[in-house]
Amino acid sequence: MIREDKAAIASRDAEHVLIVGGGIIGAACAYYLVQAGRRVTIIERDEFGNACSHGNCGYISPSHVPPLCRPGAISKTVKSLFDPDSPFRVKPSLNLSLLRWLWQFARRCNHRDMMIGGAARHTLLQSSATLYRQLIADKELEGCEWQTQGLLFVFNTEKEQANFSPLAKLVDEEFGVGATWYDGDQLVALEPALKPGLVGAFHYEDDAHLRPDRLVAAWRERLTRAGVEIHEQCSLENFVCEGGKARAVVTSQGEMSADAFIVATGAWSPHWNKALGCKLPIQPGKGLSITMPKPRICPKYPMLLEECRVGVTPFESGYRLGSTMEFTGYDERINRRRLGLLSKGAKRYLVDPVCEPIEEEWFGFRPMSCDGAPIIDRSPAMANVMIAAGHSMLGMSMSPATGKLVTEMLTGAKPHVDPLPYRLSRF
Predict the structure, then answer these.
(1) Please, what is the angle between helix 24-35 and helix 395-411, to 10°?
(2) Which DSSP helix (H) or strand (E) runs through 203?
(3) Stated pTM of the model
(4) Which of 50, 187, 258, 320 could covalently link to 182 via disulfide, CB atoms 3.0 to 4.6 Å apart?
(5) Which residues pair with 387 in a beta bridge?
(6) Judging by beta carbons within 10 Å of its beta carbon (0-12, 13-18, 19+), is residue 352 exposed, middle or buried?
(7) What are the E-state strand segments in 50-87?
(8) What pairing do the DSSP bridges indicate for beta strands 180-183 and 208-209?
(9) What is the rounded CA–CA span in Å between residue 419 and residue 409?
(10) Which residues neighbour 40 within 8 Å (Cβ) at sequence distance 6 or greater?
(11) pLDDT at residue 94 in the model
């Protein structure tokens, strides 16, 4: 726990760490670094927590063990090229970085690599779930609307349920992450907001959810109180290197020096490949969401509507439909047709799927690594620069464990999880 006098304890003589990126990963890194007695500065190109950390569905998901690169994923990707309404959409393109990423992704769509990626994800997901519970118990993140109803994976067709069931069995047997099955009638009794006639749902009871923008606000308040400096509208322009280490960063607000640096820039991390001395296999996967007041018949449970891959999240203070995945580079336009897929999909499952007025229409770039596991490692070009990126759709779920591991690696403490699965050399 960060004590109230931490800022006073952190003197000018403390080792100074500068974090590039004010999202959920950067915030978690800052928290654990302050605990370790470091002085911390965060620079953010936009507003703190205003990118992919802002408008996602807010799931804390130990259930999300298998990566997207799994047997059968290639055929789904090919089909998406010809279906503009596919939840998973790859726009045909001659973008060489995307083509290289797709090739690396395709090579890993087999059982062996799926299990390797799943094991890496499982470790961080379990650690983060434990750390979140402790943070909530210690009242470190007050106001984030933390809830523990679990997560429903809901099926409209027997075909989709039959496709998913072997994966659910594997996750249970190999990783110990089990779920309770509810058939159609049982499901409606459990969650009356769902329409009768659905096939059923898996209920992952150990999952949780929160409201992302409230979480970001809680992190900011906690970090500011602990003496962390946050510079917004401050873009990284370059690194100043001496003797195989970074001495400073050049930013839009001038040069800033530090003893160590963390690159936690999410989907934008590959922009710094040359300076970092590596090729990060990360692509921006655009996700969308719509936020509104709670409908008249509002779900109690957050849920994933499997056939259309729409996420439904009831917050204490509102209601959100989200998800879809689109690979279109860094295109910041919202595709109205794809945004409409969210409410269209929800109408197939929910008695009362939407509510007016719409409070926010949002998009964010998920940092999609080609194997589904994050990169947590030192830069090959600069020994005092850590990379923490590529968390795919699980940055919110993996952030506490990532922040703690990065801190341990920077300070020389014994890692609480094995860092080997997140090394750059695996690519």
Answers:
(1) 40
(2) strand 200-204
(3) 0.95
(4) 187
(5) 263, 377
(6) middle
(7) 59-60
(8) unpaired
(9) 9
(10) 16, 17, 18, 19, 30, 33, 34, 223, 227, 228, 229
(11) 74
Distant-in-sequence contacts of 129-135, Cβ < 8 A, 24+ apart: 129/60, 129/62, 129/206, 129/208, 129/397, 131/400, 131/401, 131/404, 132/60, 132/208, 132/400, 135/400
End-to-end, the C-alpha distance of the chain in Å comes to 36
Percent of the chain with pLDDT strictly greater than 90? 89
Q: Residue 237: left if φ>0, alpha if ψ -120 to 50, beta else—which one?
A: alpha
Task: Give the residue among 130, 74, 83, 126 at the shortest CA–CA distance from 103.
Answer: 74
**How would DSSP label each residue in 315-328?**
-SS-EEEEEEEEEB
Neighbour tally for 83: CB within 10 Å: 11
Q: What is the rounded distance in angstroms from the CA atom of residue 247 to the CA atom of residue 260?
A: 8
**Residue ranges with strand state E in 346-395:** 360-369, 375-378, 385-389
Q: What is the DSSP letter of 195?
A: P
Distance, CA of 420 to CA of 161 (rounded, Å): 35
Burial tier of 44 (Cβ tally within 10 Å: 0-12, 13-18, 19+):
buried
The full set of domains in the chain, from first to last, is: 6-53+214-280+372-426 (3.50.50.60), 65-207+282-369 (3.30.9.10)
Measured distance CA(217)–CA(1) in Å, rounded: 17
CB burial class (10 A; 0-12, 13-18, 19+) of residue 46? middle
∠ CA 33-419-19, rounded to 5°: 30
Scanning the structure block, which residue is given the tokens 């020096």? 257
Question: For residue 81, what pLDDT is reported?
Answer: 65
Predicted pLDDT of residue 324: 85
Cβ atoms < 10 Å from Cβ of 128: 26
Q: Is 94 helix (H, G, I), strand (E, B) or coil?
A: coil
**Distance separating alpha carbons of residues 283 and 88, to the nearest angstrom:** 14
- The pLDDT assigned to 85 comes to 78
> Cα 325 vs. chain centroid, distance in angstroms?
13
- Amino acid identity of 385? V
Residue spans of the chain under pLDDT 70: 1-13, 80-82
Spatial separation of the C-alpha atoms in residues 343 and 289, rounded to whole Å: 10
Backbone region of residue 66 per phi and psi (left: phi > 0; alpha: psi in -120 to 50; beta: other values):
beta
Give yes or no for a cis peptide into 357 (omega within 30° of 0).
yes
Residue carrying the six token digits 């007695």: 37
Residue 175 and residue 62 in contact, taking contact as beta carbons nearer than 8 Å: no
**Amino acid occupying residue 356:** E
3-state secondary structure of 3: coil
Q: Which two tokens stand for residue 322?
A: 């989200």
